[in-house]
Amino acid sequence: MAPVSLPLLSRARPPLLLRDAGVKLSTVRLPPPWRQQWKHTSGERRRRLSMPASAVAAETPPPHARAEEEEEAAPAVGGGEEGRFEWLDQWYPVAPVCDLDPRKPHGKMVMGLRVVAWFDGGGGGEWRVVDDACPHRLAPLSEGRVDGKGRLQCAYHGWCFDGHGSCQFIPQAPALGPPVHKNSKACVASYPSVVQNNILWFYPRSEPEYKEILQRKRPPYFPDLDDPSFNTVFGVRDLFYGYDVLVENLMDPAHVPYAHKGLMPIQNKEDPGRYCSTVHLLSTVESDQEGGYPVKIRTEQAKIDGFLSVQEDDVCYMKFDAPCTLYGKPFRTKEPQVSAP
């Protein structure tokens, strides 16, 4: 079976207090931590990386470069080879459901957004994702609790919210007074979410037009993860760097015999005498402690939202679907011999 990698984006970027600043999310284009623009010129692919703001301010591009940037900045819908990848119009994994306790909220940071995942026991029994900030005093809702009625309760003043972000109860409001909890300013932004492949996904857009986004666009689906005969292992690690670095590392097979020396036996098909240092465990002759060799890879597809590369006679492959899904079979393995009766 092909391995699947879903880097969870808990430490992707520092927090962005867009809502606190009174800016609508739909009017802001967040510069992604890893922006790729693919262009084909004379049959060759070029990769362009965005420059930090400080570098752009310190260096004025020549006229032809400015013209090229203006051409690339033209609005595009839905991406494409010549378009712009929309980082906010994508599904992102929050966490495997097996790692989430339905009795309490869980704070996460995804693409610079602080969100809280919690189990809405009073609204049909579903996992929800909302902003991790109470609209009252901006206290983190992830520090709160799920109350006895299945509502998300702020730990500061006890305001309670349902799975759609609507305020259901304000303890300090007079019981016979006006229903101040129904004021739109008392609501917390709620994001589309769904559990698929036993993973909680969310779509980082809270505008009304994205309420039914699940009917138009679903998260990546992997049939093997729902197959009881498939051996699935979920694991989460907090790494102190952007997920773009992790994804780039996972799709780089050339680093394995060096960065993971002594862990994986790798054989060169064209030169069987070259093995990594631990291949003696397979009762073979060790002739190369390094284990590195040229890897023949051809690119079958390359566009704004991912690529497909194939190597070693179509046996091994690597497929990347932006923004954060990588799956494939990166290395050739020795198939077991089966004897017919």
TrEMBL record:
The record's region (Disordered) falls at: 34-79
In this chain the Rieske domain maps to 91-202
**What top-level branch of life does the organism fall under?**
Eukaryota
- Predominant place of localization: membrane
- InterPro entries, A to Z: Cholesterol_7-desaturase, Rieske_2Fe-2S, Rieske_2Fe-2S_sf
Q: Which UniProt keywords apply?
A: 2Fe-2S, Iron, Iron-sulfur, Membrane, Metal-binding, Oxidoreductase, Transit peptide, Transmembrane, Transmembrane helix
TM segment ranges: none
Protein name per Swiss-Prot or TrEMBL: Rieske domain-containing protein
